[in-house]
Design brief:
Blueprint (H helix, E strand, L loop, with lengths): L30 H12 L8 E5 L5 E4 L5 E5 L9 H20 L9 H4 L3 H12 L3 E2 L8 E2 L3 H6 L6 H18 L5
Parallel strand pairs: 1-3
Antiparallel strand pairs: 2-3, 4-5
Length: about 180
Amino acid sequence: MNEPAMSPVTPEGLKRKTRGAPCLWFTRLPLQELVEAIRAHHFPWLAGPVRVQFTEQELLVEADFGPPPLLSWHTVLNHAQTPVEVLGALAKRALWPIAAEARGPRRAMPLPFAALCPEEGFADAWIDIHLGDCIHRRNLEEEPEVRRGWQRQWMEPRVMPPTLRLRRAEADAALRKLLGKEAP
């Protein structure tokens, strides 16, 4: 995937899409802090904070331009075994068009998307393995849609197969390098 497609809700005056009510979080991750760290490190020109929530919606992740910007993840991701790399990659994809809009039409993004999201391959593989039965991809340029019956998939354990563990280790090493941190 080269560059993420624009969010279905654009800043050109479209109203925010109505979604289900936000729900309790079952993930162990500090999502607000994760999104704020991504915004501050990769998109410092984007005014913060970015609000986050889990809710029932059509796509795995959706962004509202705000103000303030809002990232909504589908409830199927609201699980203690959803890896931080998956939520981080989805947050970067959702923030990309908001950050591009904030830079202005004549200013290019400082890095290509692939350079700031080395975990994207792992995230997409994890989504395909663990959520493949409840998502539908129209094409590789759009976020996957969540199908009815996703609740059965939400209840399943999310065990990491050995090949996916290797991809995760590679993504983590690339992320540490991008952030300028040494390996443990």
